[in-house]
Amino acid sequence: MSNLPGLYNYWIAVCLMMAGFYIVISHGNLVKKLVGLALFQTSVFIFYISLGKVADGDAPIVTPGVTLYSNPLPHVLILTAIVVGVATTAVGLALVVRIYEAYGSVEEDEIQVLDGADDDANEGTTSLEETPEADRQ
Q: Residue 82 belongs to a domain with what CATH number?
């Protein structure tokens, strides 16, 4: 139990992960869902960076007298993940903007209702692929 306070960064990562997951599943607003995903993603970054730190380890720079180094690989991978995460969030925000332009709302329930109304309105019409070749001429 004496090691428990020393693992605070793992507890922070778990709390951020659960908060992000809760935001994603509890809110119907698409922007809030993206914020929850970003929070979840940040918690994963903190977790992996914490795994890369070695107790009493130094930076991975060769210096005389240092024999224990921290692993640099998780840090490098997280830099790449941050770039991918920013790009993914930007694409998600662009999709939310496009959804708002098409439906006039970013609330998930309202979009489903509007989309269902469009399906009901188009139910009686047939598309060009469904009409027989003889009827088109």
A: 1.10.287.3510
Domain that holds residue 84: 5-136
Q: Give CA–CA dist 57/35, Å, rounded.
A: 34
Query: Would you state the pLDDT for residue 31?
Result: 96
pTM comes to: 0.74
- Neighbouring CB atoms inside 10 A of 85's CB total 17
* Number of domains composing the chain: 1
Q: Which residues of 95-120 are buried (b: 16+ CB within 10 A; e: fewer)?
A: ebeeeeeebebbeeeebeeeeeeeee
End-to-end CA distance of the chain: 82
Place of tokens 């698409």: 30
Please report, to the nearest 10 degrees, the dihedral formed by the alpha carbons of residues 54, 8, 80, 26 taken in order: 160
